[in-house]
Amino acid sequence: MNDFFDPRYPNSENLRHRAKKRMPGFAFDYLEGGCIDEIGLKRNRDLIKEVQLRSNLLEPFDKTDLGVEIFGHKYSLPFGIAPVGLQGLMWPNAPEILAKAAAELNIPYVLSTVSSSRLERISELSEGKAWFQLYNPTDDSVRKDLMKRIHAAQVPVLVVTVDVPTFGYRINDIKNGLSMPPSMSLRNVIQMATSPAWLYETAKAGKPEMQTLKPYMPKGMPVDQLAAFMNDTVMGKVDAESLKPIRDEWQGPLLIKGLVSESDVKHAIALGADGVVLSNHGGRQLDAGESPIETMQQIVAKYGDQIKITMDSGIRSGTNIACSLAQGAEFTFLGRTFVYGVGALGDKGGIHTINMLKKQLEQTLTQLRCPSVKDLPKYLVR
Ligand SMILES: Cc1cc2nc3c(=O)[nH]c(=O)nc-3n(C[C@H](O)[C@H](O)[C@H](O)COP(=O)(O)O)c2cc1C
User: Fold this and answer.
1) What is the mean pLDDT of the chain?
2) Cis before residue 181, ω within 30 degrees of 0?
3) Residue 32 φ/ψ, nearest 5 degrees
4) Were both Cys, which of 47, 106, 250, 342 would link to 91 (CB 3.0–4.6 Å)?
């Protein structure tokens, strides 16, 4: 088992700080940004910090078990790597680095539809362990072909994201004219030139492109038409009706990602989903939206026995993971933190970040004297 851990970066903020120095500004801005005034982004962080836990100091206690069984697999830790599109723009080969680290330390890595790496490559590297996140294509033939590839790659779990009916309005991305591959504006060129490690790795890896979607993109499509292509073809206007064909075509575990309300979870159950990821896309889509951490307890109380409830948005530490599980999530995901890890430490960033979160989580549970992650709700104060 790989226990690499770089003591110079013991928390997410340390990784973020170094990643910011090493990535070109436009790539870091894309990673960091929330929607419009970033109220939702801040809310995710503020609310998770309000959760409190209480130790049982005098109860008998031996050691803690951090493993969780979900969808027929026992993972070593109760968290996974959330789908993050264009990862290779932020750090070259980030999907490869993270998928390999996740497979090695036995946690799920979720590959985004709009990844810079090919589904088949990531599936192979992760020995068939990587999950796949689908943006439901509006074009039936694209959906059918993607589903065929997902089956052929023997993806174990399919995650369908439903909270992107429109592109998030992100201020810095608008100012930066974000595109894939990056546009060669003077400002972007200067940012790339002053990020030597990123530039060197990018030169080795090749210019970032949306590899999984490439077969469906018109050849030689101008960069300025990419947003329209994504909007028209891939982002899929989803509702309960348009999700039915996916449920019919996919017999394996199906998670619906991007819900925060009781009524949407009820729809997901009616649709036959096996689980939900309560998420507001890390505050990137609806600036005035609710945070999953504030609706989760009620949702778990009402529907927790009918569907697996998992969560992301705002988690940065082992403590945040413990608090989310204490509030009733069965599993958690982190988005930005893992990209900070790779931005800061390159090839070693995936393993380091998993081990960092593990150490923090283990310390928290041991301090609580909590024997397993399943028992965490008993330690919740508020
Ligand atoms: C840069 C970036 C790109 C993202 N791309 C996707 C994506 O392609 N598909 C998806 O379902 N979610 C995407 N998300 C949302 C994440 O899966 C996850 O919900 C979010 O990052 C969790 O919040 P956190 O960053 O606070 O951990 C993205 C998030 C970020 C930060």
Assistant:
1) 94
2) yes
3) -75, -35
4) 342
Give the distance (Å) from ligand 1 centre to CA of residue 57.
Answer: 37
Beta strands in the chain (DSSP E): 68-70, 73-75, 79-81, 110-111, 131-134, 158-161, 254-259, 275-278, 308-311, 331-334
Read off the pLDDT of residues 121-135 as tens digits, 9 standing for 90 and up: 999 999 999 999 999
Check pocket membership of 30 for ligand 1, CB cut-off 6 A.
yes
- In 3D space, the residue among 379, 363, 296 whose CA is nearest the CA of residue 64 turns out to be 363
Q: Which residues pair with 134 in a beta bridge?
A: 160
Which residue has the least CA distance to atom 13 on ligand 1? 84
Q: Which residue of 109, 162, 281 sits with most ligand 1 atoms within 8 Å of its CB, as the best mutation to test the pocket? A: 281
Quickly name the fold that domain 12-235+245-379 has.
TIM Barrel (3.20.20)
Model confidence pLDDT, tens digit, residues 288-335? 999 999 999 999 999 999 999 999 999 999 999 999 999 999 999 999
Q: Is 87 in the pocket of ligand 1 (CB under 6 A)?
A: no
* 180 CB within 6 A, ligand 1: no
The reported pLDDT for the residue numbered 236 is 65
Cα(34) to centroid of ligand 1, in Å? Answer: 10
* Predicted TM-score (pTM) of this structure: 0.97
Residues labelled as active-site residues: 281
On whether the CB atoms of residues 369 and 117 are closer than 8 A, the answer is no
